[in-house]
Amino acid sequence: MQGTETPTSPAAVYTPTDRTVPTRSPNRASYDKELVHAILDEAYVCHLGFVRDGAPVVLPTLYGRVGETLYVHGSTGSRPLRMTGQADPGLAVCLTVTHVDALILARSAFHHSINYRSVVVHGTAYDVTDPEEKRVALDALVDHVVAGRSRDSRPANKKELAATAVIRLDLNEVSAKLRTGGVNDEPEDLALPHWAGVVPLRKGYGTPVGDPGLAPGTELPGYLGAL
Amino acid sequence: MQGTETPTSPAAVYTPTDRTVPTRSPNRASYDKELVHAILDEAYVCHLGFVRDGAPVVLPTLYGRVGETLYVHGSTGSRPLRMTGQADPGLAVCLTVTHVDALILARSAFHHSINYRSVVVHGTAYDVTDPEEKRVALDALVDHVVAGRSRDSRPANKKELAATAVIRLDLNEVSAKLRTGGVNDEPEDLALPHWAGVVPLRKGYGTPVGDPGLAPGTELPGYLGAL
C-alpha cells in the first residue's frame, strides 16, 4: 500500500507537457508530486498500455514505486516484458491508475458523473538488468501489496529471479486528474423533482483467511491486523 | 451497475484470437459471454487505450453496455472522440476493465499475487451518428452508474446531444481473465514461519448525500436505498 517515500518539497511538481495537459477540464489536472504519489500508492493495479502491431493493448498489472520510478514485473514470457527486452530504445508505454470515489447523480442525465482520482504516466519502459535494482524493485512490488511485507517473506531465489522480468518507468511526464465535490446541474434544472446527490463508494478489507497449511504457531502479523 | 441483458445461451462464448489468448496462464482465460458481461456491468470505469502519434494513451472513462456493444461518451472536444470522428475507418482501441478481489500473501515473495477479474476488449471504435442509437447509448451510460436512473432524470436536450460524442465498440474480440483461490506456495516453503493467506477486499456504498438544493418533497429513490 505504501511506496518508499522520498523527500519532496511541498511545491514539487511535474512539468506539464502537451500530453499531460488535458484538452477538457484542465482545472481538474494536477502535477503535484505528493498527490500523484498518494494516488499511485493507494491502488493495487495499474493499467499498462503499449502498442503491438500498431494496435493498442491495455493490461492490468501490479506495480511498485521507489521514489520517482515505477516498476512492473511479470514472467519473462509475457508480452510487454518481452518487448522491452527486445527493443534497445525501450517500449513506449502509458501507465494509468484510477480510483472511483463516488457516484454523482444529477437531475439531468447529461451531468451524471463520478468523483475520481487518476494518474496517467507517459514514458518509455526499460528492462531492469542490474541485479540490485531488480531486488529493490521486487521488494517494492511486494510492499505495494502490503507495506513491510517483503521483510516477512522468503526472498526470490536465483531461479525465480531469472524467471521474472522487471521493467522501470520513470515519473517524468505525469499528471493527476480529479473530480471532487457535488452535483453541477444547470440552474434551470434545480426545481426538477429528481433526487440528485452524491453516493460515496467505500473500500475496505475482509477478515484475512490463513492458508490451511500454515506452520504451527504462525500468528496473523500485526501489519495485517491494522488493515 | 446493470447493462441491458440480452438473451445469451449458457454456452455462448467469444471466439479466441491471437490477441485474446494470453501467453501466460492461459488457464485463467475465459471467453464466456455471461462472465464477460458480469465483469463489465459491475465496474464503473474502463481504461480505454488508443494510439496517438505512435504512442499509447490509456484514459479512464465511463461506459455503458447494450447487449454486445459498449458505448463510451465524452465531449466532442476530447481526444479519442475527436479521433474517431476524423478517421473513417474508426479508431483501434483496447478497452479493459478490472476488479481486484483479494490480496494473496504467500510465504515466498515470488508467489504474492492478487485475485482479480478482468475483461480486455480489442476492436475498432466508431462514432455513433444515428440519433436514436445515440440516445440509447446515453441512457445505457447513465443506467450503468445506477440501474434505472435514466428514467429518473432529465434527458439530454439538443444542445447537450450536440456537445456529446459517443463511440461504439462491438464485443467481438474479447476475453476475461481471472485469478481465484488461495496461496500457491512451493512445497518446500510450506514450513516457513511466514503467515500466508488471502485478504479479501470489500466494496460498498456510503450514505447518499442529497444535493442542498433538492426540490421540496424529493425523497431518496428506492433504487438508491437498495444499494
Structure description:
The structure is a homodimer of 227-residue chains. The first copy, chain A, is of the alpha+beta class and 227 residues long. Chain A has one domain: Electron Transport, Fmn-binding Protein, Chain A (Pnp Oxidase, Chain A), CATH 2.30.110.10. Helix content of chain A is 19%, strand content 37%. Chain A is built from five helices and eleven strands, in the order E-H-E-E-E-E-H-E-E-H-H-E-E-E-E-H. In chain A, strands 1, 2, 3, 4, 5, 6, 7, 8, 9 and 10 form a ten-stranded antiparallel sheet that branches. In chain A, a hairpin with a 2-residue loop joins strand 2 and strand 3. Strand 11 of chain A pairs antiparallel with strand 10 of chain B, so a sheet runs across the interface.
Extended strand count of chain A: 11
**If interface size is counted as residues with C-beta under 8 Å from the partner's C-beta, which chains form the largest one?**
A-B, 98 and 98 residues
Radius of gyration of chain A: 21 Å
Q: Oligomer, anyone? A: homodimer
Shape category of chain A: globular
String of helices and strands of chain A: EHEEEEHEEHHEEEEH
Which secondary structure elements does this structure contain, and how are they paired or packed?
The structure is a homodimer of 227-residue chains.
Chain A: E1 29-30, H1 33-42, E2 45-52, E3 55-62, E4 64-66, E5 69-75, H2 79-86, E6 91-105, E7 113-127, H3 131-145, H4 158-163, E8 164-170, E9 173-179, E10 197-205, E11 209-210, H5 222-225
